[in-house]
Amino acid sequence: MxxxxxxxxxxxxxxxxxxxxxxxPFITPNEAASGIDIDSIDTDFILLTHGHADxxxxxxxxxxxxxxxxxxxxxxxxxxxxxxxxxxxxxxxGGGHPFPFGRVxxxxxxxxxxxxxxxxxxxxxxxxITTPEGTFxxxxxxxxxxxxxxxxxxxxxxxxxxxxxxxxTMGPEDAAIAAQWVGAKKVIGTHYDTFPPIRIDHExxxxxxxxxxxxxxxxxxxxxxxLESLPDLP
Length: 234
Description:
Blueprint: E1 2-5, E2 11-14, E3 20-23, E4 45-47, H1 53-56, H2 59-66, E5 69-73, H3 74-81, E6 88-91, E7 96-99, E8 102-108, E9 125-131, E10 134-138, H4 147-154, E11 157-163, H5 172-182, E12 186-190, H6 202-210, E13 215-217, E14 224-226
Parallel strand pairs: 3-4, 4-5, 5-6, 10-11, 11-12, 12-13
Antiparallel strand pairs: 1-2, 1-14, 2-3, 7-8, 8-9, 9-10
Helix pairs in contact: 4-5, 5-6
């Protein structure tokens, strides 16, 4: 399983069989991601946690160019359908569905959600994704909440992608608790540094996670991690 970071909350997961999953594409409006050629990104599925522009900005263009299947909540999938996106699968909280690459469950997040034109974006969420290569959790934008303990009770996670930027979402200290609750020993940080209110001290953030026995990974924009080859914390 390979993880490629495209900045903010956007990243891709590539599975051994070549299936590519892209999450929350916000690339072209992100100055920090100016070195990413969006036309070079191919994907089979695009998963959107909620409707805010900093998570969906490039979704329409990518969906139309690649023919990828959109996975999100019902309201977001319906909004994109009106834009001509025919390959969409709507979900709601607690529900799961089998896809060719594995099972996706849409889980709770505490945040807000509206689409770029002001349309109601449904309730925000995250994903628990189970593949033959392991299970992982994508928090989306959220506060720390106790439903995360249920995820840890029900699943054994290979890793989690957690928001850490504070101000609009949980910060590093709360996210480190979230990592404990979901049972993730490796966490990849998202939703940080893009705007002034969410700039973080990287070393302090890593220290907050290390205190909980969790490794926080902060890859550079454009960097690819082979998650199976990463060593565990001593």
